[in-house]
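hey can u check if this looks right to u? its 150 residues, i copy pasted from the old doc so theres a chance i mangled smth
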Amino acid sequence: MNTGEKGFCFEREFAKLLGRELFNDKEVFWRTPSSGARATTNKSNVQTGDLLAVKDIRKPICDKYYFELKNRKLKLNDMLELFFYLQNNHIRNGKIIEWLLKTKREAKVLNKIPVLIMKINYYGIIVVIDNQLIPVDSFIRRLKNETAKM
């Protein structure tokens, strides 16, 4: 399986997980066609990033957050660079840092909160939001609290 296929599968897998966990409906979210390619050129009020809501009632989540999903084989050094970056913002190189900075730039243009979601080999899914690294279940709890208020 090549990198693109891995990314496609993870994006769809996460979209189903999010819909199931938040709304008991795995068809609420879908991967964005072109996997977020529109985000840098489309500044209108449309859904952008790697996930979109296909059921309008759930659209506010995608209006608020800019989701970037990555499924890659990472080395320990990549994770250490991320931890270092989140502590002091001085490191500007490394694959994960590139993804995070790109996600932040694209989210800023769209006035959204950047969310980098990564599937890490032999570990699972982790989320970077608000310059914090959190487990996916903590992020889903946060979204559940927000959707309860919608």
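The mean pLDDT is 81.
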